[in-house]
Amino acid sequence: MSTKMKKPASAKPKGFPPKKQKPQKAAAAPAAADAQAQAPRPTGGRATPQTPRGMRDIVPSEQRYWRHIYKKVEELTAAYGYERLDTPILEDTSLFVRSAGKQSDVVEKEMFSFIDKGNENVTMRPEGTAPLVRAYINHGMVNLPQPVKLYYWGPMFRYERPQHGRFRQHNQFGVEVFGDPSPVQDCEVILLAHLFYKELGIKTAIHINSLGCNQCRQGYQAELSAYYRSKRSQLCEDCKRRLAKNPLRLLDCKEASCQPIKEAAPHIVDFLDEDCKNHLMRVLEYLDDLQVPYVLNPHLVRGFDYYNRTVFEIMLADENPESGQTALGGGGRYDNLVEQLGGRPTPACGFGIGVERVILQLKAQQIEPQEDRRPDIFLAQLGDQARRKAFMLFEELRASGVHAAANFSKGALKGQLEIANRLGAKYTVILGQKEVLDGTVLIRDMESGMQEIVLYDKAGMEIKKKLGKA
Ligand code: HAM
Questions:
Q1: Tens of pLDDT, residues 270-324
Q2: 56, 71, 266, 335: which is deepest, by most CB within 10 A?
Q3: What residues are in contact with ligand 1 under a 6 Å CB criterion?
């Protein structure tokens, strides 16, 4: 076949040839995980657009962390019988207002909400629990054998001030279990979060509290309001508002000036009725049995209105619970939310874990994801004929399950052998001009350096034999 080909008229793309561009600065070093989130914004004009503030690309060199973590997610969820459920990024705004609560920070300040072209008020999901509850109701999962155990993995959006470990787009691995009110289910969910970190090599402690039921909380809220009213003049503006509208949210305040007031606030555990107290005790007993380390944290209330009874956060071990460190994950029970969103009364509990925060910890503790992606074989070629034959052999090997690698755009053999070495290929197949003429290939064992000549037509079979894949 002639290699001379006429270019089709449409081959010239729009805007070709490209205008001369100023050289771009090199991308930020991958070690600076937060660097993208904090990079200066372009001023417009001809500058290259950047990722939106607080949002990041996950570049190829970072992907191994994501693969490593997702593999653990799949292992653990399969072992404990959870199934994946994916929901859309966009939801009706009312879903989050009705579940998280109007006074929650997320609803008040952090939602990416907008009116779409059909005049619907929609929100890019800030969290995964409410969407899963909606899906559980929409798909009639209440009719399935209970409990229904689900997990999710994907991006969440919160319009927060970007800082270390806090992004406007972050990813969560979460689980939600529907239909089981018993403390053993709380424990299973907590255990799963604990094992997830432990098996990734990160030591954590579970901070745990109980918010009781609606009745317990009424008594507590009255006491909490009275206490905070007596300190009203010392409160930040947000807390003054919370005091009037939703006193439990006072305990979410991050303002330094409000912390001493929070320290001395009454504890909800002192207001629990017998059932709620028993529930908490049983959860703790199970955790003791399973040797899951925990810390009772009487001020833990979590940032959403939907929780009742058990709430927990996953913190790094050996850290002071009051040091203001950010949580690696959090969750709890929400027995009223399914009904509140229009479903049949269904107890539920779950957690959400921030994947970026896990990666930051893996890096900080120099825990390297272990994965063997070494190719079985690298195909090196010299000359056009050899390239064509190597390409065909590559495809034959790939289709029969051999992990093959090649770089067909490289011409020089030296460069290709360097790549084969760098990738850690077990064997390299070399096809030069001589081999093309002889109808052979050269197979080199990269560890011993031994070389062997075999017929091109038999090469696929010989390679598979060497790899034990014949
Ligand atoms: P959350 O505590 O708001 O809970 O978020 C869960 C985890 O997501 C946090 O502990 C943190 O690791 C991560 N995270 C949250 N916001 C950010 C951010 N801006 N940047 C980076 N990471 C972040 C929930 O979302 C609940 N839906 C959890 C749950 C599930 N409760 C019951 N079931």
A1: 999 999 999 999 999 999 999 999 999 999 999 999 999 999 999 998 765 444 5
A2: 56
A3: 127-129, 158, 160, 165-167, 170, 172, 174, 176, 303, 327-332, 350-354, 356-357
